[in-house]
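Researcher: Structure prediction, please.
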Amino acid sequence: MEILNLIKNARSHRSFKNIVVPMEDLMKIIEGAHFSSAGANKQFLRYFLINDKKICSNLFKDIVWASQIEWKPSEDEAPGAYIIILTDNPPKLPLNFIYTDCGIALQNMKLIATSLGYGVNFMEPVKKDDILSLLNISKEYIPLFVMPIGVPTDDIIITEAINNDIKYSRENLGNHFYKHYVPKLSLEELIIGKK
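Model: Predicted structure follows.
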C-alpha cells in the first residue's frame, strides 16, 4: 500500500470485533515503536502488551472512547488487545520530548496495525494508578497512553469540514457496525503561507 493511502486508512477506531489479537501480531506492531526516532536517542518509553481477555475487559471499562459524542462501545465491541505506553516517574526528559517520542511511536504502531488489518486508537489514561495496579507495574513508571487494538467494526469516512465544523459523528448501522464521519479542514486552510 502506498504510504499516503496507508496514512489515510490509519484512522482512530472505537468499536471492534471482540476477539483476541495474537501476541505475534502485537510483537509486529511494537516493532514500529522499537525503530522509532527518539529525542537525543534516549529511548525512555516503555511498553506493556496485553491480550489477556480478563485484563482487557478491566481496561475497557475505564476508557473514555468518544469525547465529542455521547456514545461508548458495549463490551461486545471491546478491542482484543492493548499496548500501554509508559515512561519513568518522574520523566527523565522534558515532557515535550516525551510526548513527541510518544507521537512518533504511536503513529508508527498505528501504521503497522493498519497494514495488518487492525484498527487502533490512542488516548491518555484517566486512572493511571489503576492501570499500574492492574498490571502489577511499579510506580517508578507512569502510563502516558493506552492503545486499544482490534479488528474494527466501524468504517471511518473522511469528509470536508463545513464552516470549520470539525466535530466527528457516528451512524449506527446495526449489529455493532458503524460509519464514523471525520471532517477535515482543507489543505488550503492548513497552510498559512508559501514562499
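Model: The chain has a mean pLDDT of 92.
Researcher: Thanks, that helps.
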